[in-house]
Design a protein that fits this description.
Layout (H helix, E strand, L loop, with lengths): L1 E5 L4 H12 L3 E5 L10 H5 L3 E3 L10 E5 L8 H8 L3 E2 L2 H9 L3 E6 L4 H12 L6 E4 L3 E3 L6 E5 L14 E4 L13 H12 L6 E4 L14 E5 L6 E8 L3 E7 L2 E8 L4 H16 L4 H8 L10 E5 L2 E6 L4 H14 L5 E5 L4 H15 L4 E4 L18 H4 L6 E2 L15 E5 L5 H14 L2
Parallel strand pairs: 1-2, 1-4, 2-3, 4-5, 6-9, 6-10, 7-9, 10-11, 11-12, 12-13, 17-21, 18-19, 18-21, 19-20
Antiparallel strand pairs: 7-8, 13-14, 14-15, 16-17
Helix pairs in contact: 5-7, 5-8, 9-10
Length: 437
């Protein structure tokens, strides 16, 4: 079959395109972004053609799918509709794929990408799992029965999925442009999890996971002693180390070569899922110690004594977790955060939480809001100043005006956003390299 993916450089769409290709389909795509994005790597490896204009022909039997960031009024969407092509929603196609495999769905408001990557890593070697990870990383083997997929609650996408086993890392308010309130989010997760054929593994430290009302038993994990799987003796060395217990029974001492208690929780979920698939404890321990996170998850670059961190954190909870992890790894370093807000609705809904989380570092800079699926005209008076005006010494910067960052040489400078920050990092790198000459 032939598929045409509009918005193909988006993390989810890029991953879907790769998987469709691996399943033996002919795949091409469109994206108006000409600049290179990290999500293109897998597309280029498969020689998937990316168009930036509407001058190429499309066969009449082509199936079109599109990113939610692309409105139906977009010129390319208008073109494929006029051509009379079959159009399927992104999540409908993914749902069809999940029904073909023993599917492990990793869901939650935060931590999906890292946990999905960990599950895939712990299963690899014992199995050859296929995977769909929302960092633009996907692969399917027709010879593999196991499919690990990051399962997104945005627009209720994951309700079309068919999980064999499910992880729920947490639930809290997010994507409030799609949900009425927290109860609506919990109800939607409940509908999703109720489709699980076998086991549900959930973080018991998150109060909202206990509000699920399911026929299936839920295995709870976390730091709290009322969980079935309990994390104890967590210490920071050259990563995170911790003991894991099943009730009072010691399982193993694990080493994780990345930082943050949120990552310890993610690792624990992955360990339990690997145990569920009969991976030996020794193999789990050894594989976890070699884990490397996905692109844009605490990605570090070192320029003399300046440490640059590129991270996908974009929600106040994620920002706070990333800042805490940086402080655990670099307790004696000055911490500077450059945050590019994504979507006006998120600032509207979480202004106070953004102020609180960003106030936990030494210096804060924000760009103007980056939003490819919302119009500022629909959100009057919502802007980055609603955050910077309430944080001492915070400032607004842009890619073209970053000279103020020269003084941050020698610090840990973290660039946080789910939008691209590559140009910001490139320009900052040039600034400090030129200043060092």
């Amino acid at each position: 079959m032939k598929y045409y993916c509009i918005g193909i450089k988006g993390a989810g769409m890029s991953t879907l395109a790769q998987i469709l290709y691996d399943l033996g389909n002919e795949v091409s795509g469109y994206d108006e972004t000409i600049d290179y994005k990290f999500t293109e790597k897998g597309l280029h490896e498969r020689n998937i053609k990316i168009y930036n204009d509407s001058n190429h022909p499309l066969d009449k039997d082509t199936i079109v799918t599109y990113s939610v960031a692309v409105p139906l009024s977009h010129k390319e969407m208008q073109r494929v509709q006029k051509l009379g092509l079959t159009i399927k929603k992104y999540n409908e196609i993914i749902g069809e794929i999940t029904s073909m495999f023993n599917t492990i769905c990793i869901s939650g408001t935060h931590g999906k990408t890292s946990t999905s990557s960990m599950v895939k890593h712990l299963l690899t070697g014992t199995y050859n799992p296929s995977y769909f990870i929302g960092s633009g990383n996907g692969y399917i083997s027709k010879d593999s029965n196991i499919f690990v997929i990051e399962s997104d609650e945005f627009n209720r996408h994951f309700l079309t999925y068919h999980p064999t086993n499910t992880i729920i890392t947490n639930m809290e308010e997010e994507h409030m442009e799609c949900y009425k309130d927290l109860n609506d989010i919990i109800d939607t997760f409940n509908k999703f999890a109720s489709n699980t054929k076998e086991k549900i593994i959930a973080c018991g430290d998150n109060i909202n996971t206990h509000k699920l009302k399911l026929k299936q038993d839920i295995v709870y994990y976390g730091f709290n002693n009322d969980n079935e799987y309990i994390i104890k003796n967590n210490i920071v060395t050259d990563g995170e180390e911790f003991d894991l217990y099943h009730h009072n029974d010691f399982i193993e001492h694990f080493k994780l070569p990345i930082f943050g208690t949120h990552m310890v929780l993610n690792a624990t979920a992955a360990i339990i899922m690997a145990i569920n698939y009969n991976v030996s404890i020794n193999d789990i321990k050894n594989r976890l110690s070699t884990f490397k996170n996905e692109d844009r998850r605490f990605a570090e670059t070192f320029i003399k004594d300046t440490i640059i961190i590129d991270d996908y954190a974009h929600h106040p909870t994620e920002i706070n977790a990333t800042i805490t992890a940086i402080k655990r790894k670099y307790p004696d370093k000055r911490l500077v955060v450059v945050f590019k807000p994504n979507t006006y609705s998120r600032i509207r809904d979480f202004q106070d939480d953004f102020i609180k989380s960003l106030s936990n570092c030494d210096q804060v800079y924000l760009t103007n809001v980056d939003s490819n699926r919302e119009k500022q005209s629909d959100y009057p008076n919502i802007n980055s100043y609603l955050i910077t005006d309430h944080i001492p010494n915070a400032a607004i910067i842009s890619e073209d005006n970053m000279d103020i960052l020269k003084k941050e040489k020698g610090s840990v400078v973290a660039f946080l956003s789910c939008a691209s920050v590559s140009h910001l990092i490139e320009n900052f790198t040039k600034l400090i390299e030129e200043d060092s000459k």
